[in-house]
Amino acid sequence: xxxxxxxxxxxxxxxCAEAALFMRDYVLSRVSHDLRxxxxxxxxxxxxxxxxxxxxxxxxxxxxxxxxxxxxQQVHLLETLVDTTRAETRKLxxxxxxxxxxxxxxxxxxxxxxxxADERGVSLAVEGVPTGVTLDAGRERIAQALWxxxxxxxxxxxxxxxxxxxxxxxxAAAQFELRWQASLDTLTDDALxxxxxxxxxxxxxxxxxxxxxxxxxxxxxxxxxxxxxxxxAQPLVQGEAxxxxxxxxxxxx
Length: 253
Description:
253 residues; 19% strand; Heat Shock Protein 90; histidine kinase; phosphoprotein; HisK_dim/P_sf; EC 2.7.13.3; elongated; HisK_dim/P_dom
């Protein structure tokens, strides 16, 4: 029993580290994109000012030179630090192989219960299993994404609540839908046990734009995209029903 507990604890730690890694990648991509637009505008306006300012005005020329230098330094930082750091997870590797979907679901749900759901008093209910389906896809990556969704739902579920995982699958694709009632206050309640990274939990409490998802779930999006699928998350609203959908196309085994 001790060995099983240790193994599950180690797996939980590894899964949390993977989630944090892809959240970092997502945040860096947002930073890179959001900084480049104003930097390009500053650079363009500097050239406009250059044509308007008297070349004999040494102070103005030094100011423009400082603006251009500052922009170039920021772009260099983006290219050498942000973009280089993102290279580690920019291309997600998928090792495709046939596997039984029912076994993956059973193992992943058990891991999520042991990681947080049981300790938080959140029930995980599964519908649509057994499927009897064998998929040819990235088993470990799908398991990571599904585990992260279940644990996130447990993080935002009140004590005694139920998270329902509905599975629909064929040999060509699998779709997972998670439904539960969101209790956002639980994300940052220090009196409760937590598994996911504090920054990611805190950010998930902020209002989400339509079509956006909490940053801590970036791994789910990358796994879906790597398989040619999609990840959709309705904005989380305190006390209202939440719905996340992970769709993963796969080759027939």
